[in-house]
Design a protein that fits this description.
- With 654 residues, the protein is an alpha/beta fold.
- 28% of the residues lie in helices and 24% in strands.
- Among the domains are: 75 residues, no CATH class; 146 residues, FAD/NAD(P)-binding domain; 63 residues, 2-Layer Sandwich (Alpha-Beta Plaits); 76 residues, Alpha-Beta Plaits (2-Layer Sandwich); 52 residues, no CATH class.
- It has 19 helices and 33 strands.
- Helix 10 links the parallel strand 22 and strand 23.
- It is flat and about 110 Å long.
Length: 654
């Protein structure tokens, strides 16, 4: 029994599932208790040396331990996600097996070290000192108070440092926190009945630490505190919350590996050019503050990044890409999943995308205490739903997802702007092409009953599934998906308007107001705006436009407006001429030296200037640089201006 180059081991979980290997596309036998009396079959598969896929996730720890180091193992849950449902669907199990058999690409990691230095920010709470003492058993603790607690007695034996200071800001992450404080003072050794402090000479100080426990009843010192590694908050009045934080911090000592969630290419970034701001999608949606402007580009701190995926899903150029795993692998997973679904004659499908740590318990609850997932639902497990950009969701629709449901936990409600924006863009495309509105949706719940209700209705069969390979860049994959959806659409219109912020669109340019200065061409990071080396010309390639806004921000005449849309006109893939003029020629030597529109505009602006009065002054503007110098020094008084206006009011003398 093999699938995807792996030996596939099936198990009926002691006869609680009906499995037909032929319908799953793997053949062979079905074991009754692979984790028990049939364990020899697993041992034989491992001994053969081939990669192994076990159709069970519940007993994965047992199988990993038995296989030992170096074994190539993969697992697929076809029980809770299919077999234990009221209406199992062999096509779904077939797709889940094919998806799990794909080799996962390696993920780059960061080395993080924590020596156990811990800052406890106690505010003025009397419980801060005993809580810090509990950490001092295994950590190097410094307690920072902002006011001496009234009822706190000095410790009999000092096991930690105690400071009095005004907390200003906290930067960094696990292993490299820096706390900036003002007016620091140290605990006097002679403190008797109360905590007494002696001021230090320094007015400000920076304290380095590996860990931070924030006990203050004030706003957190970092954005998205739950996502900042090494930073924990707890209310001293809630002992269970304090205990959880203390135990968690004690475990964060030593060397760790953290996935590098985002890959970044500055050469593709459309953030800024020459001090003009363009795209800010990643900056606007990063919940942790891991992204900051860095000249014309941005800088991403991988230590602070929590891997929500918003930057990668919204980045219009692919400069920021989710890398754990990358989107091209997720697109391959979708293709594999739907190909196996179609081979098993699965019918119209609803794709349920969810995060494993949140969605798996809900799916398990449905399987064990309810009817399980409806037969038309295909579960698609990801690390973060925020990593699903327009390219991936459009690809899912092209491969046959009649409906797309993104399942999110309620505690992430504040971080769902990016997924909601992407879903709105896809909904606009599908509705504009005649497929109907409401196909993609966002479901925020942790209730299995709500999930079952949202998935109950089977979608109608309206899509023509694609089979293209997800190759190329992010925009290439998006274009493949959109072209397929348009080519099979009920209403194949030429262009579909999109919401603001979409990565596709055109430009509305006030052509008469354009002077062909071509500043926009120099600012465009993708080559959507082009010039001609031989004559003053502005051309536009819509297929390359990412709606970053740099052209509009750079244009001195302010004649450019963004218009987001998905264009299916073949002409959008070729440059079109927006404006073209004959070059302005020098009135003295005839040499071309600029655009006629720019020269006329400058001449009009300088018409009332004293240095450019009369025909000779006006001609200076219309001369090339060399002739302008010659003409000035041919005058009797080259620095003489025009006649002074006759004074008429007192203001004219000033």
């Amino acid at each position: 029994m093999r699938t995807g180059g792996r030996t596939c081991l099936l198990c009926s979980c002691e006869g609680t599932m009906r499995i037909d290997p032929a319908l799953l596309g793997v053949g062979g036998v079905v074991h009754h208790a692979l984790c028990g009396r049939d364990l020899a079959a697993f041992d034989a598969a491992i001994a053969a040396g081939a990669p192994v896929l076990v159709a069970c996730e519940q007993e994965a720890p047992l199988f990993r331990e038995r296989a030992g180091e170096g074994a190539d193992l993969a697992f697929a849950d076809i029980r809770d996600r299919d077999g234990w449902g009221r209406v199992p669907n062999p096509a779904r199990a077939r797709g889940l097996l094919a998806d799990a058999a794909l080799p996962t690409p390696p993920v780059a990691v960061l080395d993080v070290e924590s020596a156990g230095r811990c800052l406890v920010l106690g505010g003025s709470d009397p419980e801060a000192l005993p809580i810090a003492g509990r950490l001092a058993d295994s950590l190097d603790v410094t307690l920072v108070l902002e006011a001496p607690p009234n009822d706190a007695l000095p410790p009999r034996v000092r096991r930690l440092n105690v400071l009095l200071a005004r907390v200003e800001r906290l930067t960094g992450s696990l292993g490299r926190f820096v706390l900036a404080v003002a007016d620091p003072a140290v605990l006097r050794p002679s403190s008797r009945a109360t905590l007494a402090f002696a001021p230090l000479a320094e007015r400000t100080s920076a304290i380095e630490s590996d860990l931070v426990l924030d006990l203050r009843r004030e706003p957190p010192l970092v954005p998205a505190p739950a996502k900042r590694d090494g930073y924990r908050r707890a209310d001293p009045a809630r002992p269970a919350e304090v205990l959880e934080a203390v135990l968690a911090l004690k475990d964060l000592v030593g060397a760790f590996e953290k996935p590098r969630h985002v890959a970044y290419r500055a050469d593709l970034c459309a953030h800024s050019r020459s001090g003009r701001i363009g795209c800010t999608r990643c900056l606007d949606h990063c919940p942790t503050g891991a992204i900051r402007p860095d000249g014309d580009f941005v800088a991403i701190d991988p230590q602070i990044c929590a891997g929500c995926g918003a930057c990668g899903s919204l980045c219009p150029t692919g400069a920021a890409t989710y890398a754990a795993p990358p989107p091209d692998f997720q697109a391959l997973r979708l293709r594999t999943l739907f190909a196996a679904w179609r081979e098993g004659r699965g019918g119209p499908a609803t794709l349920l995308a969810y995060e494993a740590r949140h969605g798996d318990p809900l799916v398990t609850a449905l399987a064990r205490a309810g009817d399980g997932l409806p037969p038309h639902v295909l579960p698609f497990r990801v690390d973060e739903i925020g990593q699903l950009g327009l390219d991936l969701l459009a690809t899912a629709a092209a491969y046959g997802a009649e409906r797309l449901v993104l399942l999110a936990p309620p505690e992430k409600r504040a971080d769902l702007d990016a997924p909601a924006a992407v879903l709105a863009q896809l909904d606009a495309v599908l509705d504009g092409l005649g497929y109907g509105a409401g196909r993609p949706s966002l479901l925020v719940t942790d209730d299995p009953d709500d999930l079952a209700e949202a998935l109950a209705a089977a979608p109608p069969p309206t899509l023509t599934p694609a089979s293209f390979l997800p190759q190329g860049s992010k925009r290439d994959r998006l274009r493949l998906a959109l072209d397929h959806l348009h080519g099979n659409a009920p209403a194949p219109v030429v262009a579909v308007p999109l919401p603001p912020g979409a990565p596709l669109g055109t430009l509305d340019i006030d052509v008469p107001g354009c002077t062909l200065c071509l500043a926009c061409v120099g600012a465009c990071p993708t080559g959507a705006l082009l010039d001609d080396p031989d004559r003053p010309t502005l051309r536009f390639l819509e297929d390359a436009c990412v709606q970053c806004g740099l052209c509009a921000a750079t244009c001195p005449e302010k004649v450019i407006r963004l218009r987001p849309q998905a264009s299916f006109d073949p002409a959008a893939k070729s440059p079109r001429t927006v404006k073209e003029e004959a070059p302005a020629t020098c009135v003295r030597c005839g040499r071309p030296f600029g655009t006629q529109g720019s020269i006329d505009r400058i001449a009009a602006k300088l018409a009332a200037h004293p240095l450019f009065q009369g025909d000779a002054g006006t001609d200076l503007v219309r001369m090339c640089a060399d002739c302008r110098i010659k003409a000035q020094f041919e005058q009797k008084n080259p620095m003489q201006g025009g006649a002074r206006p006759r004074p008429r009011t007192a203001d004219d003398y000033r």
